[in-house]
Design a protein that fits this description.
Length: about 110
């Protein structure tokens, strides 16, 4: 049974940083590419970043390129998203879906 648990969100001011974590279980994490998505109120879900199974190749949405870094620790079944220089438009619930299973997400709010 695939389980996903995102954490690390919070309320921060513009320019600050957060590190999100996603711990998964129930499947062979190291075999799969992984992604972070986000959904802001009233907006469609957006792909934020993607990383290959080995953690070598990454891709980012233009809106976060240069500010966010996706990484993973396969030995810990954990996916990360380091978010620097946060902006109000980054406010959203962040998710790391796994094999079609979506967790509760973690809320990120950027506001002064």
């Amino acid at each position: 049974q695939v389980q996903v648990r995102e954490s690390g969100g919070g309320l921060v001011q513009p320019g600050e940083s957060l590190r999100l974590s996603c711990v998964v279980s129930g499947f062979r994490f190291s075999w799969y590419d992984m992604s972070w998505y986000r959904q802001a109120p009233g907006k469609e879900r957006e792909l934020v970043a993607r990383i290959d199974s080995a953690g070598v190749s990454t891709n980012y949405a233009n809106s976060v390129k240069g500010r966010f870094t996706i990484s993973r620790e396969n030995a810990k079944n954990t996916l990360y998203l380091q978010m620097n220089n946060l902006k109000p438009e980054d406010t959203a619930v962040y998710y790391c879906p796994s094999l079609g299973v979506w967790g509760q997400g973690t809320q990120v709010t950027v506001s002064s």
